[in-house]
Amino acid sequence: MASGGFTRLPSGDVVVALRLPRPGATPGDDIRVIVLAANRQRALTRLRNLGFRAVRLVGNAHPPTPDEVRAVLHHPDGLVWRDVAATDAVGWQSISALR
Hints:
single chain
């Protein structure tokens, strides 16, 4: 189960942030994924369609920070990621760079 959270924007859209295991990496090498969608279920469906089949969001323990919301709003795909251990100097990457 992924740890994460969500926040609702004034426009009605939702930004979902999740910590997920990086595909094809060693255990413990996690990534933080930020998704912009109309609602939480659509955000999770977008991730499931990318191959993250067991994605669930339970609770709101780790909602996206304002910087994460800003990053996903300015990205054309509305879906970005970076390593959990990355510093703030490391930019957010498109989900296509993960594959």
